[in-house]
Amino acid sequence: MDRYLVFGHPVRHSKSPFIHTLFARQTQQELEYGLAEPAVDEFAQALRTFFDQGGKGCNVTVPFKEQAFTLVDCLSPRAKRAGAVNTIKLTDDGVLLGDNTDGAGLVADLKSHGVTLADSRILLLGAGGAARGALAPLLAELPSELVIANRTHTKAQQLAAEFHDLGPVIAQTYEQLAGPFDLVINSTSASLQGELPPLAPALIHTDIAIYDMMYGASDTAFISWAKQHGARQTMDGLGMLVEQAAEAFTVWRGIRPGTKQVLRELKRNLGAI
Ligand code: ATR
Question: How large is the C-alpha radius of gyration of the chain?
Answer without folding.
Answer: 18
